[in-house]
Design goal:
heterotrimer, A alpha+beta (481), B alpha+beta (489), C alpha+beta (95), A: alpha+beta, 10-stranded mixed beta sheet, 3-stranded antiparallel beta sheet, 18 strands, 39% helix, C: 95 residues, alpha+beta, Histone, subunit A, 3 helices
Chain lengths: 481, 489, 95
């Protein structure tokens, strides 16, 4: 789809549910999946007279985020009330942050294809989540569950610097991996822990920003991409027909693959923001920031560079290994057992076999049946010559299927040890030569292919336990060329 | 017995001269007899109250009593009390039985006080005459054709008429002090943050404070000792070392001139033409008495004080408009019987549930916060608020306490000011600035004005200076008997 | 500054309070009266003055991240207008 001379301008607002055990302003639990309204205390259901008290864990996670994106952590930030009426908003206002958010600025590095782009953030602020409306028909009524009301959210706002649906998705994925990396959000899309709203507008290059539409509550990367693509097409159609874009909020309908206007939010919303008088300003001093900094893990960007420099991995491999914390951790754990000098083969195994198997069986890395220590054992045995590469895959297979606790055990049990003893190999070669006179003659007659056939036969005879290079050398010596 | 102070009653209870059940029953009987006239109580639950009295007697019997154990206390119906209907004077909550206790209720119950019932109040604490209550106006015990003052009118009338020896109230713009003045009792609003607001239905969050209403400063100190204290459930509750607010009362002073060394500031803005002559006379006499007790007086200025009314009528409605949004018919309280859809349900529920004054304030509050008007109104008001507070800080460099009238008039006739809301708002002229600054303030009886109606003297203290304020009031009450007078009921 | 009838209707809608046309007229007069009272503060020059949100300049106290509340939904819902299967029921919400 070529947007004929239109520049697509996209900004993303992401809501990440912070992984605290209790709510941002009350002591009720945040665990997902509880029976309706069993995790909504007096404060969460806004009984008359209740008051909010701020959760330290939520603030700490905001600080972690600020550090991870290189943003400015505000020494003083203020909570404000965003006033509007909706049944899942018990107080009739949401406690959020408006003029003075906890984090300002910052950026993330996003890979789009081969390109690396820096996307700047405007801000990130703390706020509370609303409850849920259940639209299954209760005889003409909607059911309200307030368990989610009061769950802490970090709203992350990007600058409108994304230029395509693909870029927007890459940014969303990067942010998703990052919040999981630094342990502030579990990133569970199905449970709604990570939600994106996209602001989409078009303009002619060099012109001022066009009118934007907001597409809300996209909770899968696929929907995010398709919704933006649809919206861009929709806006282009309108603009090229000479019309103008109405600023509005829209929802994506995945069944129809289209965005449509949200009727209930059509009335212009005046949120009447003002600082919440029930809360005092949030002060974060340098001491606290420093303390949090010491607990931060190595960030993906830094780790990626280290993998390239320290282990000599390619940029691509380093990037893929650091795309998610679980992968990086698996890699590091395997390397700790195998030894740093085996970084490249370990990387190959993880990005190759392990990844392929996980994909095929639709498993998450956390459910991989092969543990880092086991993989390390396997790679070491190949590196030290005990196991041939070919048999390496067989052992991996056995490990994956639980046929042995360690590579050594399987090698032992299945007698897969690589035959390196020259005299043993010589004997085998003798047999092979004797049984394959024709190939020997053809080789002598100058057919190189016949040599490969002999190598193949020898490998077969050893049942893969020989080192192909060694077989090759011995055969050449034997046949005297 | 019903005329005795909390201190005296406490003594009798601890020596087992009288039981809590006896004492409480005596008050319950007075309530049964006089409440139909005064309408001071919205809810009385005899059985529940007596059950508490029996528990208190058990504690006293074990020798585990404190100064408030077994003492019956009435709670303004703005305090949530578990198992009690808590209406806030409104149709919106007329059927709301609270599932939890306010901090203030918990503290007093913990001290062994017995809940005598829930007192009438202006709806959602918005009013200065207790005429906006859904449950009907409160009558002034001194003259039942007159208002009791508001919004803590029910608590004031109850104590004045000796239906309760003490009561809780709340003060956002004068709602403890003004009804105390109009009904001839002692009422105290502490420094903002001293009494937890948890469970105190919010009107204007940055101004609301709960406080005691009783017949003497000493009794107020006793109640305040129990009501105050840090509460982790209220972010604006202050963490400070525990205080005995009675310590000034017990301090040794020269018996003839106990106020020697005290400088009393008299703001010229308090003594201008705004006050009625009868109020002025009683207040001037009180100040003369204070001088006789050894205090020095000095003229001070609070130049921005006249802005306090406009500032208050921007900030309080703004905060209230947001605080009252939770009353939507979804989770508790009134819900309209008929509606077409959600919007209709909201709009009808709130139109039916709220009275006219509350609606006016919500509308004004919504307006001043709305897009385009925030800077001109809300922000401007917050800035002026700082100027008003700074005036007091400057004044307190030259004096220890400030005195003046509490209310510009004595109690007025029921219905006299209902026509024009603005007229009613002007009753708060002397009290509002104290809330805006977050300072502590008291009103004590200092005489009578026209038609034999009480006049109140206001004492304003510096931040956290309640103990001194209470002592000054107490010394005055030791040489006068205005606070002991009672209406002939 | 005085409010037009249109403004009064908009404010009432924002505040979700139904008012009839008759009520709107009375309310409008009363609100304009209150606005007249408030006008007095407009003229004051407050440049350079910081707004005062709270009496003391303190910062927000933080609670530890712990679950301290248990399930009391039965007690809370005993006062609800309409509840079914543990859910609060409201007129159907269109999205």
């Amino acid at each position: 789809m070529s947007a004929s001379n239109w520049e697509v301008v996209i900004g993303l607002e992401t809501h990440a549910q912070l992984s605290t055990v209790s709510k941002i302003f009350s002591g009720a639990a945040t665990a997902f999946g509880a029976a309706p309204n069993t995790q909504a205390c007096a404060v969460d259901i806004a009984l008359p007279g209740v008051l909010p008290v701020l959760n330290r864990g939520a603030v700490e996670r905001a600080i972690r985020f600020g550090l991870a994106v290189g943003g400015r952590i505000a020494p003083r930030s203020v909570f404000a009330r965003k006033n509007y009426f909706y049944p899942d908003l018990p107080k009739g206002y949401q406690i959020s942050q408006y003029e003075l958010p906890v984090v300002g600025g910052g950026s993330v590095s996003v890979r789009v294809g081969d390109e690396e782009r820096t996307i700047r953030l405007t801000r990130a602020h703390l706020e509370e989540d609303a409850g849920k409306s259940l639209h299954e028909d209760f005889h003409g009524r909607t059911g309200i569950d307030l368990n989610r009301a009061g769950t802490p959210l970090l709203e992350i706002v990007s600058e409108p610097e994304l230029r395509s649906a693909a870029e927007a998705v890459a940014y969303a994925r990067t942010l998703h991996a990052l919040v999981r990396w630094i342990d502030i959000c579990d990133g569970n899309l199905q449970e709604g822990s990570f939600r994106c709203d996209a602001n989409v507008s078009l303009r002619r290059p060099g012109a001022p920003l066009g009118t934007r539409c907001e597409i809300k509550n996209l909770n899968s990367f696929r929907f995010l991409e398709r919704a933006i693509e649809f919206e861009v097409r929709r806006q282009i159609d309108i603009l090229e027909d000479g019309g103008s874009i109405v600023q509005e909020t829209r929802l994506y309908d995945p069944d129809r693959d289209e965005t449509r206007s949200m009727r209930s939010k059509e009335d212009a919303q005046d949120y009447r923001y003002f600082p919440d008088p029930d809360l005092l300003p949030l002060d974060i001093d340098a001491g606290w920031i420093d303390a949090v900094r010491t607990t931060m893990p190595e960030l993906p960007g830094a780790m990626r560079l280290r993998f390239q420099e320290q282990y000599g991995l390619s940029a691509y491999d380093a990037a893929t290994l650091t795309a998610q914390r679980e992968i990086a951790r698996f890699f590091q754990d395997t390397l700790d057992c195998a030894g740093a000098e085996l970084a490249k083969p370990v990387a190959n195994w993880i990005l190759g076999e392990v990844s392929a198997r996980l994909n095929r069986e639709e498993l998450d890395l956390s459910r991989a049946p092969v543990a880092p220590a086991q993989l390390a054992g396997l790679v070491r045995r190949i590196a030290d010559g005990t196991l041939s590469n070919a048999l390496g895959k067989k052992v991996f297979d056995a490990l994956w299927n639980g046929k042995g606790a360690t590579a050594d055990e399987i090698i032992e049990r299945q007698a897969l040890k690589q035959i390196t003893d020259e005299s043993a190999l010589e004997r085998i070669i003798d047999e092979v030569l004797a049984a394959n006179q024709k190939s020997v003659e053809e080789f002598r007659a100058g057919k190189e292919k016949a040599f490969n056939a002999l190598v193949g036969q020898a490998m077969k005879a050893t049942r893969g336990k020989a080192n192909p290079q060694q077989i090759n050398d011995l055969l050449r010596r034997r046949l005297g060329s | 017995m019903i005329n005795e102070s909390l201190v005296q009653l406490g003594g009798r209870l601890r020596t087992r001269e009288v039981s809590s059940v006896e004492l409480t029953t005596a008050f319950l009987e007075r309530i049964a007899r006089l409440n139909p006239v005064l309408n001071a109580f919205i809810t009385v639950d005899r059985e529940r109250t007596l059950a508490q009295a029996r528990e208190a007697d058990a504690r006293l019997g074990r020798g585990e009593g404190g100064p408030l154990t077994g003492i019956p206390v009435a709670h303004k119906d703005i305090f949530c009390a578990r198992g009690w209907r808590t209406t806030c004077g409104s149709r919106m909550l007329s059927n709301f039985v609270s599932p939890y206790d306010a901090h203030v209720v918990e503290r007093l119950a913990g001290a062994g006080a017995v809940c005598l019932g829930k007192t009438n109040m202006d709806e959602f604490a918005m009013g200065s005459s207790n005429e906006t209550s859904h449950f009907g106006p409160v009558k002034n015990p001194w003259n039942t054709a007159m208002v009791s003052g508001g919004s803590s009118g029910g608590s004031a009338a109850a104590v004045a008429a000796r239906l309760a020896p003490g009561a809780t109230g709340t003060d956002t713009g004068g709602s403890i002090r003004q009804p105390a003045a109009l009904c001839g009792l002692t009422g105290l609003k502490p420094t903002y943050g001293v009494v937890s607001r948890y469970g105190m239905i919010a009107f204007a969050s940055s101004l609301d404070q709960g406080g005691p209403m009783a017949r003497s400063a000493q009794d107020c100190a006793l109640l305040l000792n129990s009501m105050s204290g840090f509460d982790p459930r209220d972010s604006t509750s202050l963490e400070r070392p525990a205080e005995d607010y009675s310590r000034g009362v017990d301090a040794a002073r020269d018996p003839d001139r106990p106020l020697v060394g005290l400088t009393v500031g008299l703001p010229k803005e308090f003594f201008g033409p705004g006050m009625d002559a009868d109020v002025a006379a009683a207040v001037e006499a009180a100040i003369a008495e204070v001088r006789r007790l050894g205090a020095q007086t000095v003229d001070i200025g609070l130049p921005n004080m006249e802005l306090s009314i406009p500032v208050y009528y921007v900030l309080a409605p703004a905060e209230a408009s947001s605080n009252l949004s939770r009353f939507d018919g979804v989770r508790y309280g009134h819900r309209s019987a008929q509606f077409d859809d959600l919007m209709d349900m909201y709009c009808r529920t709130r139109a039916e549930g709220f009275g006219d004054e509350v609606k006016r304030r919500i509308l004004i509050g919504t307006y001043v916060l709305s897009h385009g008007y925030y800077d001109a109104y809300y922000l401007q008001a917050q800035k002026l608020r700082r100027l008003i507070a700074q005036d007091f800080v400057a004044a307190f460099r030259h004096c220890d306490v400030i005195m003046g009238p509490t209310s510009p008039t004595v109690a007025f006739a029921l219905g006299a000011r209902s026509a024009d809301p603005v007229q009613m708002y002007l009753s708060d002229i002397y009290t509002i600035a104290v809330n805006l600054a977050g300072l502590p303030g008291m009103s004590i009886p200092c005489g009578f004005g026209g038609h034999g109606l009480p006049v109140g003297l206001q004492i304003i203290g510096n931040y956290f200076d309640e103990a001194r304020m209470i002592e000054v009031a107490h010394r005055y009450q030791q040489v006068t008997d205005w606070h002991l007078r009672a209406p002939a009921l | 500054m005085s409010l037009s009838p249109e403004q009064v209707r908009n404010i009432a809608r924002l505040a979700r309070i139904a008012i009839t046309d008759a009520e709107a007229a009375t309310v409008r007069d009363q609100l304009n009266g209150i606005l007249g009272l408030i006008e007095r503060m407009q003229a004051v020059d407050t440049s350079g003055i910081a707004p005062m949100a709270h009496a003391q300049d303190l910062s927000q106290r933080l609670r530890d991240d712990r679950v301290t509340e248990s399930d009391r939904h039965e007690a809370f819902q005993s006062v609800a207008p309409e509840v079914e299967a543990g859910l609060y029921l409201v007129p159907r919400v269109m999205e």
